[in-house]
């Protein structure tokens, strides 16, 4: 039984896809691409797909992961291409490796997020970030299924930096970009919780909703505050006689550029 | 003229609304054509929420037919939920298409498909959000032509003030004819403005332009006559009929949404029309004659459609799917073909006979046998004669015995309440029937673990049917009758707990009845309801009976009529009905005779296997019954990788 781990994106307007929507779309893409899936046993067999740690509806992502089990062996890169073509543009399969290690989900220790704050002066954003980082604990509230819940949004934040977006798009109004590295914890601290924290500590209130994108997920290097490609161990564990054209992944892997651009 | 996408402005609103994915488009198999390279542009709307509208076959077919044409583009728009509507008003974002997010007002035609009358208030919301005047008479050359289609358009009079025109019948060829007329008019520099364009459409005899007809009323409120007010406009407007379904294998590339919708499957229409002659059924009357798609045409559509979509279920649609002359071979052929692929097959709208159970068995060869649905419609033998649903209790019991004997655990039975001449006793017999079904089921299955669900809807008399003259049962009487039946079923100690009972109260039916058989005076009620906040009338949580009644009381009495006049009043032979000038092909005298036959409890056969009964459609529309068998079989697909 071949298991394949895939990295995929939620880009542009398709960031409004909910996880349930994605699951349906992905399973249909598997059928169109005629992927020989392994099925669960039972009355209503389901293709074997495990999803990990999906980004919330409305946030974009460059680094979502899932694993599929096949009933027949397939060449990995070819399969990636087929599936990518079968999915709508914006839901793109950017990397694929054959699973050769266990406990993949545990390797998703932390995420790198980018938050684009249109209408926010970079200096204001920097001040707010400094205040947030200076605090021991920043309590925020979020509405959950069980009502309003209060928790700390500071502890899980490994790094938080602000910069000016003007370099990317001169001429437009002010725009600050935040880069956030956050450890996956319980309860999960999401980018909007950090925004609530910035509002709580420094009254930072973006006039329009932030455009949020997950840039990476993976193992956390505590010292440098960076996140490494979770598919790397599978790639490294490849047998000496490669069955697939492994090499660098097509999207340049999940390496996270260091610091700000 | 460049037309900008409203998406950047919409995008800022989407994080604040429920299920934003429904507004972003990008569905698999959707089409975005270059705006400037097209000279005729259609915005197609299904006036309900995206989750209901997206799977609609009519819109999907026309979208593809139009987009296949060079120089023509079609985009889709749906009703936005009140949360987004409020934000769109606040931020001045107009009604948009989901394909390229262009404002609806920028299109040449705004075409709405009305499966039901309950979409009328949603049309007004969309017009207003689009910045298009609600009243046809207030529109200018810069507004699109507002066109209504779908089954409800067979009586467009209640929305006559709001639409510019209506088309009745099959849309495939009609939209292309209309496109050519618009193209020519635009190429000539739009001579004579909107009026000239509407006149050119009206002259064809296949497009109804309400503004070109005057309605005269008698002192007692009835219609005196409906007359064209412009020379060259025909007295009656004809429906459109597509004769060869194999020439129109649409949708070829069904849309696959990202958002969850009400039908998560691919549908193939296996025939159009029905001549069973059920007297309550508007669809069966207005879509005559029967036109079958061939077994090979069906096989090809299923094959291509599955490849294009990745759906895991195929529905074989029609008004009575088991009546296809080659349904046995179709079911077996498809079941053979997809046995390995975990593709589910379903056959909605089936009749009550044992052959059906064989079909259902074939279609569920590998899968689970959960529930089978039958629609006897009337509880008593007498009632079924009145409605011309020729099923005896014996047939039904034999059928369910076969079903339970073949491992089916649940049988669902559909009925109507409030049919003409119905008494309490007729409805109470539904309970007896359910008890007999359970008793037989326990006997043949040897198990007490079987169920029968009785589902009841209120009957609403519809235009172009033999019951168009019938009085509708009031909401109070409907509720009282259903309460008696409920008590009877619940009170049955031996069988009651095996019988499920589902019904709706009688109130929504009264509003539907008002809109179905209404005339132009009803427009004032629709407008008042919309202005009072009425939206999404097909949704229980949004529908307000009290609002409809309040608005009707505000606007109808000054016009000399009221809700009861439109709903519970029986009409006479002489009365001019609001839709008489819309020609469905049915001969009004034949409909009247059939109405008299109903009152006499006389049944009429299906003209597919008996001589013609002169309903009038074939000679009037120059059409004929198109059925097999072709004698062909579905061959296994060759594997090409």
What this model shows, in words?
- The complex is a heterodimer of chains A (261) and B (641).
- By secondary structure, chain A is an alpha+beta fold.
- Chain A folds into two domains: 2-107, Pseudouridine synthase I, catalytic domain, N-terminal subdomain (Alpha-Beta Plaits, 2-Layer Sandwich), CATH 3.30.70.580; 110-221.
- Chain A has helices at 19-32, 76-86, 122-134, 191-202, 232-236; strands spanning 2-10, 49-52, 60-70, 93-98, 110-118, 139-144, 147-152, 157-164, 175-183, 211-221, 226-228.
- In chain A, the strands form two sheets. In chain A, strands 1, 2, 3, 4, 5, 8, 9, 10 and 11 form a nine-stranded mixed beta sheet that branches.
- In chain A, a hairpin with a 7-residue loop joins β2 and β3 (60-70).
- The radius of gyration of chain A is 20 Å and the shape is elongated.
- The model of chain A is unreliable at 245-261 (pLDDT under 50).
- Chain B has 641 residues and is α/β, with parallel strands linked by helices.
- Among the domains of chain B are: 7-235, Rossmann fold (3-Layer(aba) Sandwich), CATH 3.40.50.280; 265-367 and 605-641, 2-Layer Sandwich (Transcription Regulator spoIIAA).
- Helix content of chain B is 34%, strand content 14%.
- Chain B has helices at 7-11, 50-53, 57-68, 82-91, 120-130, 172-187, 193-203, 282-286, 295-309, 327-337, 354-363, 381-387, 393-405, 424-445, 475-490, 507-516, 523-531, 545-555, 563-567, 588-599, 617-621, and strands at 40-49, 72-79, 109-113, 145-149, 165-166, 213-217, 223-228, 237-238, 266-269, 271-272, 291-292, 313-317, 344-346, 371-377, 410-417, 451-458, 499-503, 582-583.
- In chain B, the strands form six sheets. Chain B has a five-stranded parallel beta sheet with strand order 2-1-3-4-5, with helices on both faces. Chain B has a four-stranded parallel beta sheet with strand order 14-15-16-17, with helices on one face.
- In chain B, α13 (393-405) runs parallel beside α14.
- The longest helix of chain B has 22 residues, at 424-445.
- The interface between A and B is medium-sized, with 29 and 30 residues.
- Chain B: Residues 260-502 form the Radical SAM core domain.
- Chain B: It comes from Streptosporangium nondiastaticum.
- Chain B: Pfam families: Radical_SAM, Radical_SAM_N2.
- Chain B: GO terms for molecular function: catalytic activity; iron-sulfur cluster binding.
- Chain B: InterPro entries: CHP03960_rSAM, Elp3/MiaA/NifB-like_rSAM, Radical_SAM_N2, rSAM, rSAM_horseshoe, rSAM_sf.
- Chain A: It comes from Streptosporangium nondiastaticum.
């Amino acid at each position: 039984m071949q298991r394949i781990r895939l990295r995929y994106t939620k880009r542009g307007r398709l960031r409004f896809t909910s996880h349930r929507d994605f699951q349906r779309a992905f399973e249909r893409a598997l059928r169109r691409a005629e992927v020989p899936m392994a099925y669960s046993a039972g009355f209503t067999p389901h293709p074997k797909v495990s999803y990990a740690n999906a980004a919330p509806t409305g946030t974009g992502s460059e680094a979502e992961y899932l694993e599929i089990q096949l009933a027949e062996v397939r060449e990995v890169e070819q399969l990636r291409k087929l599936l990518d073509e079968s999915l709508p543009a914006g839901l793109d399969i950017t990397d694929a490796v054959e699973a050769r290690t266990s406990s993949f989900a545990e390797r998703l220790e932390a995420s790198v997020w980018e938050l684009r704050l249109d209408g926010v002066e970079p200096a204001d954003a920097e001040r707010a970030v400094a205040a947030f980082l200076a605090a021991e604990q920043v309590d925020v509230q979020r509405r959950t299924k069980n009502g309003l819940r209060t928790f700390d949004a500071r502890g899980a934040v490994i790094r938080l930096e602000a910069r000016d977006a003007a370099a990317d798009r001169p001429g437009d109004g002010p725009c600050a970009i935040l880069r956030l590295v956050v450890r996956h914890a319980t309860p999960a601290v999401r980018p909007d919780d950090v925004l609530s924290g910035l509002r709580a500590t420094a009254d930072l209130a973006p006039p329009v909703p932030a455009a949020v994108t997950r840039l990476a997920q993976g193992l956390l290097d505590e010292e440098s505050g960076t996140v490494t490609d979770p598919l790397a161990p599978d790639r490294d564990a490849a047998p000496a006689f490669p069955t697939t054209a492994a090499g660098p992944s097509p999207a340049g892997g999940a390496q996270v550029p260091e610091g700000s651009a | 003229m460049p037309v900008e996408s409203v998406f950047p402005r919409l995008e800022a609103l989407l994080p604040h609304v429920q299920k934003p994915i429904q507004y972003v488009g990008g569905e698999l198999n959707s089409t975005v054509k270059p705006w400037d390279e097209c000279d005729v542009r259609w915005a197609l709307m299904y006036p309900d929420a995206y989750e209901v509208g997206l799977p609609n076959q009519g819109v999907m077919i026309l979208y593809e037919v139009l987009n296949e044409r060079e120089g023509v583009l079609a985009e889709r728009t749906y009703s936005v939920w009140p949360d987004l509507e409020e934000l769109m008003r606040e931020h001045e974002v107009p009604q948009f298409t989901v394909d390229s997010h262009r404002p609806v007002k920028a299109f040449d035609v705004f075409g709405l498909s009305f499966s039901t009358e309950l979409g009328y208030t949603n049309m007004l919301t969309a017009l207003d959000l689009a910045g298009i005047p609600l009243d046809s008479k207030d529109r200018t050359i810069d507004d699109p032509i507002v066109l209504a289609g779908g089954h409800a358009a067979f009586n467009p009079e209640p929305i006559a003030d709001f639409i510019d025109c209506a088309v009745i019948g099959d849309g495939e060829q009609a939209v292309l004819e209309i496109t050519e007329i618009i193209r020519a008019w635009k190429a000539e520099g739009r001579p004579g403005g909107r009026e000239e364009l509407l006149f050119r459409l009206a002259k064809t005899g296949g497009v109804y332009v309400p503004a070109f007809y005057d309605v005269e009323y008698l002192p007692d409120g009835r219609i005196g006559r409906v007359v064209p007010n412009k020379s060259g406009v025909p007295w009656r407007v004809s429906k459109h009929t597509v004769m060869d379904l194999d020439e129109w294998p649409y949708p070829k590339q069904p849309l696959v949404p990202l958002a969850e919708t009400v039908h998560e499957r691919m549908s193939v229409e296996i025939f159009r029309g029905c001549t069973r002659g059920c007297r309550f059924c508007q669809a069966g009357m207005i879509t005559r004659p029967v036109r079958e798609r061939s077994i090979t045409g069906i096989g090809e559509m299923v094959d291509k459609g599955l490849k294009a979509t990745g759906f895991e279920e195929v529905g074989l649609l029609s008004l009575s799917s088991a009546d296809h002359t080659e349904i046995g071979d179709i079911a077996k052929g498809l079941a053979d073909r997809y046995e390995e692929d975990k593709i589910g097959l379903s056959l909605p709208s089936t009749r009550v006979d044992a052959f059906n159970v064989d079909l259902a068995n074939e279609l569920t060869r590998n899968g689970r046998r959960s529930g089978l649905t039958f629609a006897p419609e009337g509880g008593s033998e007498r009632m079924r004669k009145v409605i011309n649903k020729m099923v005896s209790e014996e047939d039904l019991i034999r059928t369910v015995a076969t079903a339970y004997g073949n491992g089916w655990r649940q049988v669902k039975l559909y009925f109507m309440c409030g049919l003409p001449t119905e008494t309490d006793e007729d409805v109470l017999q539904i309970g007896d029937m359910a008890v007999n079904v359970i008793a037989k089921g326990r006997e043949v299955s040897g198990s007490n673990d079987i169920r029968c669900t009785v589902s009841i809807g209120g009957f609403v008399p519809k235009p172009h049917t033999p019951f168009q003259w019938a009085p509708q049962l009031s909401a109070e009487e409907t509720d009282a009758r259903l309460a008696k039946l409920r008590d009877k079923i619940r009170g049955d100690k031996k069988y009651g707990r095996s019988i499920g009972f589902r019904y709706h109260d009688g109130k929504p039916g009264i509003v539907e009845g008002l809109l179905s058989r209404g005339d132009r005076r009803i427009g004032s009620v629709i407008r008042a309801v919309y202005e009072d906040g009425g939206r999404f009338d097909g949704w229980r949580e949004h529908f307000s009976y009290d609002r409809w009644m309040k608005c009707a009381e505000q606007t109808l009495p000054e016009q000399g009529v009221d809700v009861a006049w439109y709903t519970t009043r029986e009409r006479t032979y002489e009365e001019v009905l609001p839709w008489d000038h819309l020609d469905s092909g049915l001969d009004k005298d034949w409909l009247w005779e059939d109405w008299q036959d109903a009152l006499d409890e006389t049944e009429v056969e299906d003209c597919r296997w008996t001589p013609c009964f002169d309903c009038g459609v074939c000679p009037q529309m120059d059409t004929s019954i198109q059925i097999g068998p072709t004698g062909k079989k579905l061959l296994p697909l060759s594997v090409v990788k």
